[in-house]
Every structure is written in structure tokens, then in C-alpha cells.
């Protein structure tokens, strides 16, 4: 056996006693914060649950047998030690919510099969080791919220940014290039600095003075140092670190 920390052993009896009824009437298997180091095989006998919470444990791997949870709508794996996800996760066609925040996932170990989760509405990939986002995630047309914060991203593909139903995207604390340069590079529209609709000689003196005053004010504003923009708030994509609240209900879509 590999040397390492010995985790809590979950028996079928413990698992059955950990089933709760969620706010919408579904059956939720809550095994969070139990010191689990290995995915408990016994819970495969409870694969008819609607929600599975294995967050805040010490899991390093999720087996391919996760595909047995075909009814699963809500899967929370945040704050573990996961370095990869199995491709079998793409078979969970009813999955609505997937949280793998605060793990050790790399871009290389994100399975391509994630793009098969056609009913996914909320995806949290924050606090991992991602240096890029697969463009294939643009296939998740139902996605409404995505967390990408605290990674090593330098860009976000347009296929993700332009998802038709996307309402919230939290990508804070990534090493993106200078935003001004990005905007200049992305802006292919040629702009005209001054557009004359009438000639100066056709204006009366009072109108000409009014126009000149307006132009002077615009020039002053143009040369002013812009104030830093206010940071956006993403209340549903919080960072689940040690300061996170124990009540995980606020992570869920209301």
C-alpha cells in the first residue's frame, strides 16, 4: 500500500445515515468534511441519489464508476486534492451543477467529455492550476454561471465568453495581459476623431463658441487619468477556502 494519510472509512450504514432531503425534495448524499481519502465504493449501492456532496475531504481521484450515478443533478467535489477528473463524468447527462473548485486540476487533466454535459447550468473551476480553458466548453449552451478565478489563465476563449445563456463569469485573480492593450488589440473598428456636419463659416458666432467650448471639455476629459473600475461581485461563485462558511446552501442555485 502507498504510504500516506489514513482517511475515514465509510461504511454503507454511515452512507445511508448521511442521506438528506434537499430543498427541492431530492435525495442528497452528504459526505462532506469527513476526512475521506479514497472514494468509498459502498456508495455505489446508493447511486440513485439526486445529489452527491464529497466536498472538503482529501480525495485525489474520482473513479470511472461515478457514471453509475445517472440520476445525479448536483455534484460537489470542491476542496479536495483532485488532480484529474474521469472522462466518465461526461455520461452524467442530468448534471445541473458541478463544483470542482479548490483542487489541483490542470488543463491537461480536464477531460474532453466535460463538453457532453449539455444540461449543466453552473460550473466552478476556480482555485485550480488551469493555464487555459478548452474551447470545447463552448458546447455547454445551457451554462449560466462559470467560476474561473484564482488560476493561471492569460485568456478566455470567445466560445466560452459568448455562451448564449451565460450570466456570470468570475475570472478574478488570473494573470491576464494589460486590459487596455487587450481592448486595443480586439477593437478592429476604425474610428474618426472629428466629424464635421457643417462648416464653421455656416455657424453664427454664439453657436460656434458653444461648439468650441464642448470640444475643449471633451479634450480635457480625454486627457484625464481614468479612475480604477469597480470590481464586480460574484456572490454565487465564492472561493471555498478556509474562510468559507460551513453552510454550503449559499453555493446552490436558488
UniProtKB/TrEMBL annotation:
Q: Which domain of life is it from?
A: Eukaryota
Region: Disordered; residue ranges are 221-254
Any one GO cellular component localisation term in the record: cytoplasm
**Keywords for the protein's UniProt record, in alphabetical order:** Leucine-rich repeat, Repeat
- Read off the Pfam families from this record: LRR_14 (PF23598)
State if Electron transport is listed as a keyword.
Answer: no
Q: Where is the composition biased (Low complexity)?
A: 225-240
Q: Which residues belong to any copy of the Disease resistance R13L4/SHOC-2-like LRR domain?
A: 66-200
Q: Which InterPro entries match?
A: Leu-rich_rpt, Leu-rich_rpt_typical-subtyp, LRR_dom_sf, LRR_domain-containing, LRR_R13L4/SHOC2-like
According to UniProt, the name of this protein is LRC18 protein
Organism of this sequence: Psophia crepitans
Q: Gene that codes for this? A: Lrrc18
Amino acid at each position: 500500500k502507498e504510504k500516506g494519510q489514513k482517511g475515514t472509512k465509510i461504511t454503507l450504514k454511515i452512507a445511508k445515515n448521511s442521506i438528506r432531503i434537499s430543498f427541492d425534495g431530492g435525495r442528497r448524499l452528504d459526505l462532506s468534511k469527513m476526512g475521506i481519502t479514497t472514494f468509498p465504493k459502498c456508495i455505489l449501492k446508493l447511486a440513485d441519489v439526486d445529489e452527491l456532496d464529497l466536498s472538503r475531504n482529501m480525495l485525489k481521484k474520482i473513479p470511472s464508476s461515478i457514471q453509475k450515478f445517472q440520476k445525479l443533478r448536483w455534484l460537489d467535489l470542491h476542496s479536495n486534492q483532485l488532480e484529474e477528473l474521469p472522462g466518465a463524468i461526461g455520461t452524467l447527462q442530468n448534471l445541473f451543477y458541478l463544483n470542482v473548485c479548490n483542487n489541483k486540476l490542470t488543463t491537461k487533466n480536464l477531460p474532453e467529455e466535460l463538453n457532453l454535459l449539455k444540461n449543466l447550468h453552473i460550473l466552478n473551476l476556480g482555485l485550480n492550476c488551469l493555464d487555459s480553458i478548452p474551447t470545447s466548453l463552448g458546447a455547454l449552451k445551457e451554462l449560466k454561471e462559470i467560476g474561473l478565478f484564482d488560476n493561471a489563465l492569460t485568456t478566455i476563449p470567445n466560445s466560452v465568453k459568448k455562451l448564449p445563456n451565460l450570466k456570470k463569469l468570475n475570472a478574478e485573480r488570473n494573470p491576464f495581459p494589460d486590459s487596455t492593450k487587450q481592448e486595443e488589440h480586439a477593437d478592429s473598428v476604425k474610428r474618426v476623431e472629428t466629424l464635421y456636419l457643417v462648416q464653421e463659416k455656416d455657424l453664427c458666432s454664439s453657436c460656434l463658441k458653444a461648439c468650441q467650448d464642448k470640444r475643449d471639455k471633451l479634450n480635457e476629459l480625454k486627457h484625464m487619468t481614468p479612475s480604477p473600475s469597480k470590481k464586480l461581485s460574484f456572490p454565487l461563485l465564492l472561493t471555498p477556502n478556509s474562510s468559507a462558511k460551513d453552510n454550503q446552501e449559499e453555493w446552490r442555485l436558488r
